[in-house]
Write a structure and sequence with these properties.
The protein contains 14 helices and 10 strands. With 529 residues, it is α+β, with helices and mostly antiparallel strands. It starts with 11 loop residues before the first strand and ends with a strand.
């Protein structure tokens, strides 16, 4: 789900090559626009909270005067989760303003309205802040953990707000009842509002951010219509009845909600569960004169159970669907890697045979190259194919030939992608083999020094950030005869050029072989750690 920021960031345009981006607008203009966006957010959230609060105030319990259902809390929490922490100030202010306006219009004095506003604002901010802290931004009901987490955050926030609200009623209000009774009723009211309405807001946001086919929209809307019609047809009659007829709405609605959870777990399923809750509350409001406390409690339990069952099923199904997608991706990735590995092995075998002087020479060279590929594969498997650090790869390849120390291999931590790691390991293996046979590693006193660094954009003639790897042999001159390029030399000079668009400079001066590899950072998705 894509987060919509309530405030714009500074717009930038690219500057001249090698220079910093140029800001398109002045800081004063950006600040003014942010203030304007904040004011609009405050007004809109205040209006939405006011009308939702007026709906909640239509159903007050007696004698404590607390609403049975508070949908405004769900709207506010949903908006905070959609727009993120940057929206806490404007939306929180809107919640306070909407609460004061709704209570004063309903005839409550300001000394009650202002503490109620603080309680509602505190509650919404705690729920949204705790949810993001526990579950991260861009919250969706796509896992059972997130479903449980939002319920936990809703309970904590509603309980905190209920403390302030119940204390205000007990000290300043004229309603009867104990502090605990007021707290319990406030907690149930706001908790049900969050549980019932927040999924509706997140579901609508998911619909706006996901690319859904017209057919899926038609199917989802049809199921929503069926669920709403079934709830509207069954709940009014069963609300004031008891016995076996109470189970009728559940038996009618559950198959439809289950179908929604299966077909649209992250969008219409959440909207359908919220619609059932809203219709049930509307039935209570319309039958307020004849509805008993038992009817109200049954309705509250029905809302919680219906929404909890629907969302938990949707979360489990979404987890299963995501797991199936990951499994298919892993199978395709494994198939791709196996084919690439076999192709590489076949090429190594063919080229080794072409340049081998005897069967023993062929077996020796082939075994060394396959062992190098196997070592790289082992390191990638250990890192779950997330990549290998460049220093780790070089140290592993040279560990058998010289003592590893901090002076031999110098450079920043660079994470290589799996494909680049496999190619680079073959290049390092061929350089090591040449050093053993003809270069510095042919004698114990010989040494190899490998250094690498990141060349910034402004220092690169091509204007791209580049990883530069320098191989330098010390201690002994190159003693081999330079003849036609064999498989090893061709691998060093050509493999990275074709696989990674790299440039390779290989030379054999009298003081020891040198090799410089230049790899572009961006196309290869190289990252520093």
């Amino acid at each position: 789900m894509t987060r919509i920021p309530p405030f714009p960031h500074d717009e930038q345009v690219p500057g001249p090559t090698g220079s910093q981006p140029v800001k398109k607008r002045s800081k004063a203009a950006v600040t003014l626009k942010r203030l304007g966006m904040g004011l609009v957010s405050t007004v809109l959230s205040a209006a939405a909270y006011y009308f939702a609060a007026r709906y909640g105030l239509a159903l007050l319990t007696q004698p404590d005067g607390v609403a049975v259902f508070w949908p405004a809390s769900g709207i506010a929490v949903g908006a905070l989760l959609v727009f993120g922490t940057a929206s806490f100030a404007p939306i929180g202010s809107g919640v306070a303003i909407g609460t004061i306006a709704a209570n004063i219009v309903a005839g409550r004095p300001p000394e009650l309205a202002i503490p109620f506003a603080f309680a509602n604002m505190l509650e919404c901010l705690i729920v949204a802040g705790l949810s993001e802290w526990l579950l991260g931004p861009n919250l969706r009901f796509d896992t059972l953990r997130k479903f449980i987490g939002i319920f936990f955050a809703a309970a904590v926030g509603a309980a905190a707000g209920a403390v302030v609200g119940a204390a205000t009623i007990a000290m300043l209000g004229k309603a009867e009842g104990s502090f605990l009774a007021h707290w319990h009723q406030w907690l149930r009211s706001d908790l049900i509002g969050i549980i019932a309405i927040t999924p509706l807001v997140l579901g609508i946001r998911a619909l706006a951010s996901k690319q859904i086919s017209v057919r899926a929209h038609v199917e989802g809307l049809l199921l929503i219509t069926l669920v709403s019609a079934a709830a509207a047809a069954t709940y009014p009659d069963t609300l004031i009845r008891q016995g076996i007829e109470v189970t009728l709405p559940i038996s009618v609605l559950f198959p439809l909600l289950l179908l929604l959870a299966i077909r649209h777990p992250l969008t219409y399923s959440q909207i359908g569960a919220s619609m059932v809750a809203i219709i049930l509350v509307a039935c209570i409001v319309s039958e307020r004169k004849i509805a008993t406390d038992f009817d109200i409690m049954w309705a509250q339990l029905s809302i919680v159970s219906m929404v909890a069952c629907s969302l938990s099923l949707a979360a489990l199904i979404a987890e299963r669907n995501a797991g199936e997608v990951r499994r298919q991706l892993l199978v395709r990735e494994l198939d791709h890697r196996v084919k690439n590995g076999l192709t590489l092995v076949q090429a190594v075998v063919d080229r080794s045979r072409e340049h081998a002087s005897s069967i023993d020479d062929f077996c020796e060279k082939l075994a060394g190259r396959i062992h190098s590929m196997a070592r790289t594969h082992t390191m990638l498997s250990r890192e779950k194919w997330q990549g290998i650090e460049l220093g780790q790869l070089i140290a592993t390849e040279l560990a058998s030939y010289q003592e590893i120390n901090s002076k031999a291999f110098v450079g920043p931590r660079v994470l290589l992608t799996p494909a680049l790691a496999q190619s680079l390991s073959l290049v390092v293996h061929e350089l090591s083999t040449n050093a053993i046979k003809h270069g510095s590693l042919a004698r114990p006193e010989g040494r190899v020094h490998v250094a690498w660094h990141i060349e910034p954009v402004h220092e690169n003639p091509e204007g791209v950030e580049t990883l530069v790897i320098e191989w330098q042999e010390f201690g002994l001159p190159f003693v081999g005869k330079i003849g036609p390029a064999g498989f090893g030399t061709s691998t060093i000079r050509d493999l990275l050029k074709y696989e990674a668009e790299a440039s390779v400079d290989l030379s054999f001066p009298p003081d020891g072989a040198r090799c410089t590899v230049r790899l572009p950072m961006a196309p290869l998705r190289l990252t520093t750690t």
